[in-house]
Design a protein that fits this description.
Blueprint (H helix, E strand, L loop, with lengths): L1 E6 L14 H14 L1 H11 L6 H8 L3 E9 L11 E5 L4 E6 L6 E5 L2 E4 L7 E5 L1 H6 L8 E4 L7 E9 L10 H4 L16
Antiparallel strand pairs: 1-2, 2-9, 3-8, 4-7, 4-9, 5-6, 5-8
Length: 193
Amino acid sequence: MFYMISLPTHLRKPHVFPNLSISLREIMEIYGVELKNLPMTILGLIAKAPKMGARDMKELFEEGYQGMRINYYPPCLQPDQVMGLAPHSDPVGLTILLQLNEMEGLQTRKDGMWIPIKPLSNAFIDDVGDILEIVTNGAYRSIENRATVNSMQERLSIATIYNPKIDGHCWVLDSLLMWSKSPNCESPLASLI
């Protein structure tokens, strides 16, 4: 596993980034820039749901914090004895996952059962994270997921996470507080990042 802050660039660890190979730096730079607009497009579509304010969502997430985690899961002779990544919900706004070699391993929990997510060629998987669940007052739920390994082939993925701006605060969107009968949160929360 390798993790790096991709945006804003001034938060990168200056002693680590220059030590990466030039080709890896260039690829990560291009990938990060290309993905910069995708989360805002997705969040804009989410905000079009009834009673949500697109302006609120844009204000919260615009110029947000972006990080990338490259995951490598080697083949394992006893896959039922190990866990690739333990069950968790993503403590972020949005996760955009690219499964590089289209090897199955991502699972999500539904009705108490683990459901495998089939990789699709040239497709992203978007996960709602805990922060998005909070700011939408539960209208969108963070999902529980995990990664498994297999005995025959390695699995590679890149998880790009997107959060509100680093110096911002997370709160239930004002547009949702106006109509919610029993809000989960009535006042701004301290920054969750």
